[in-house]
Design brief:
The structure holds two protein chains of two kinds. Helix content of chain A is about 80%, strand content about 0%. Chain A is mostly helical. Chain A has one domain: ABC transporter involved in vitamin B12 uptake, BtuC.
Chain lengths: ~325, ~260
């Protein structure tokens, strides 16, 4: 099967999922339910593409198909920022009430964190993969401990409202943020589209990329900032979904055998939309809201992650 | 013209390349030889801007390599390193097409396709151009990467031990192709070689390195003699003439 056929199939499945989610079992007024459902679909499409894009490009620049911005601890940074805000300013402070300010704070902190990681990961000449994973895990654990330490100290009522922010949820999406997110995402994609060809060359490795005239260090830095902005945007919009990027990126590599980022990213984006919208449909209509989508994603994603680790270690050994 | 001036590189405190100054003769094959750890590959990496030098500079047409625009430099100088492990699955033709990236930025024109055809033809890969790289033997893979560099069509071609893991037949094939690139197309080839006899038979100039310093630099016939070789390798190496080629017989030498 050709890649264009596969992409068309994915698009059709994604549209079916969206229609099913939008029209299935509408009760109590179409005018009330439909716009709300479409709002969620919008958020899921945005998040899906943002995560797919950032994961694929991150894996290209790190030359590794197990690392994701989330595995490296970018999600934990979001929790740190939110916890620090609740700890020092409280839930009724302007930093929480004003969505835009909260959003900006999260994004700035996560991008800064990515830049610090950049010094560890890319400045030194060569790092073995296990060292990267180790650094990521240690940082993640460290930030996680810091977060739980602060959470123990804050007021229980404050803690509850903090907790609701730290779980990914597509059911209560902040509408104001949806529009900003669309804006940020379009800008990011406009830049992302321009560097698509350079990313293809990047997958040949650092030395071949430099040989072919890629300004390697600058591109790595730009891509890292870009993908942390995207992850930060989607996290601030719906909360952290740790393993999601890993699943969709790797499914896309397996399904579409190509080196072309335009195809890979589109495929990963469509798979994201199918997984999110289809998953949310299952959560709402089959599990009847007894569980959340992020629980399912992290469960399935965790299993898939272990599978990938085993596969890679077998390939290496 | 490539000119290297006072180039030094340290890893930690250990100098790997120390105060190297040489000129690369255009339109010729220059071989870098020397014992393991002499700094040959490091020197080549700095010339091709894969690695930053600590001090000193590399000049291409009197301009510092670091000041060249990346994509302009890629149209003048190409480099192929020894380890080429790819994370992606590519066919030979796709890989060779990447060689045109500095010109076409990924959108191949008809002329680009022609250069790709020629490069594949040059390396005798036409029959298998649609095979995936992971289905190839080490020698075929190496030839595919060299074809990419040929498609890049640069004046200067730098190769880091391209004969590694190749059998005799393919090694000779590749050296003959490099010779042809220089003689027919006027390219300048700089190559790191381990086998001194390939350096002796195919190169015009030899730069010998030892402990990061240049110990010998000159035309091949001035370097391939027992006296100079002793200085480079600390070995007694008899040199014999065979059909006009100087062959170093080092296999049973006493140091």
């Amino acid at each position: 099967m050709r890649n264009s056929t596969k992409l068309i199939i994915l698009t059709v499945v994604a549209i079916i999922c969206i229609l099913l989610y939008g029209f299935y079992d509408i009760k109590g007024g179409f005018d009330y339910a439909f716009p709300r459902r479409m709002m969620r679909v919008g958020a899921m499409v945005i998040t899906g593409f943002a995560i797919a894009y950032s994961t694929v490009v991150f894996q290209t620049i790190t030359h590794n198909r197990i690392l994701t911005p989330s595995v490296m601890g970018l999600d934990s940074m979001f929790e740190v920022v939110q916890t620090l805000i609740f700890f020092f300013a409280g839930s009724i402070s302007i930093w929480v009430v004003n969505q835009y300010l909260n959003f900006a704070a999260s994004i700035v902190a996560m991008v800064l964190f990515a830049l610090i990681l950049y010094r560890f990961l890319f400045r030194a000449d060569k790092h073995p993969i296990y060292l990267l994973l180790l650094i990521g895990m240690i940082l993640g654990t460290f930030l996680g401990s810091l977060v739980s330490f602060l959470q123990v100290l804050i007021d229980p009522v404050e803690y509850l409202s903090l907790q609701s922010r730290l779980f990914a949820s597509f059911t209560n999406i902040k509408v104001e943020l949806l529009y900003i997110s669309i804006g940020i995402l379009l800008l990011a994609f406009a830049y992302g589209y321009r560097i698509m060809g350079q990313l293809d060359v990047m997958s040949l490795g650092r030395e071949n990329a430099i040989n072919l005239g890629i300004n390697y260090d600058r591109l790595v830095l730009n891509v890292l900032i870009l993908s942390s902005v995207l992850i930060a945007t989607s996290t601030a919009l719906v909360g952290p979904i740790t393993f999601f990027g890993l699943i969709v990126a790797n499914l896309s590599y397996q399904f579409l055998v190509t080196y072309k980022h335009s195809v890979l990213i589109l495929g990963a984006g469509l798979i994201s939309v199918i997984a999110l919208v289809g998953g949310q449909f299952i959560v709402e209509h089959i599990f009847e809201m007894n569980t959340t989508l992020s629980v399912i994603i992290n469960f399935v994603g965790g299993i898939y992650f272990i599978y990938l680790l085993l596969k890679e270690s077998r390939a290496a050994g | 013209m490539i000119e290297i001036k006072g180039l030094t590189k340290r890893f930690g405190n250990k100098p790997v390349v120390e105060d190297v100054s040489i000129k690369i003769q255009p339109g010729a094959i220059t071989s870098f030889i020397g014992p393991n750890g002499a700094g040959k590959s490091t020197l080549l990496s700095m010339v091709s801007r894969l690695l930053d030098a600590d001090t000193g500079e590399v000049l291409l047409d009197k301009n510092d390599v670091k000041k060249w625009k990346s994509d302009e430099f890629a149209k003048r100088v190409s480099i192929l390193k020894q380890a080429n492990f790819l994370n992606v699955r590519l066919t030979i033709r796709e890989l060779v097409s990447f060689g045109r990236y500095p010109y076409s930025k990924g959108r191949l024109t008809i002329e680009d396709e022609q250069s790709v055809d020629q490069a594949i033809e040059y390396m005798n890969l036409t029959d298998m151009q649609d095979k995936f790289l992971d289905e190839l033997s080490g020698g075929q893979k190496q030839r595919a990467f060299i074809a990419m560099v040929i498609a890049q069509d640069t004046e200067y071609i730098l190769l880091d031990e391209p004969l590694n893991n190749l059998d005799m037949k393919h090694s000779v094939q590749i050296m003959k192709i490099l010779r042809k690139l220089v003689d027919d197309l006027g390219k300048t080839v700089v190559i790191v070689l381990h086998d001194i006899n390939f350096a002796s038979v195919y190169s015009d100039n030899i730069v010998a390195l030892k402990n990061g310093r240049v110990v010998k630099d000159g035309p091949t016939n001035e370097i391939i003699n027992s006296e100079a070789l002793r200085e480079i390798y600390d070995m007694n190496i008899p040199v014999q003439e065979q059909n006009g080629c100087r062959i170093c017989v080092y296999f049973n030498s006493h140091s």
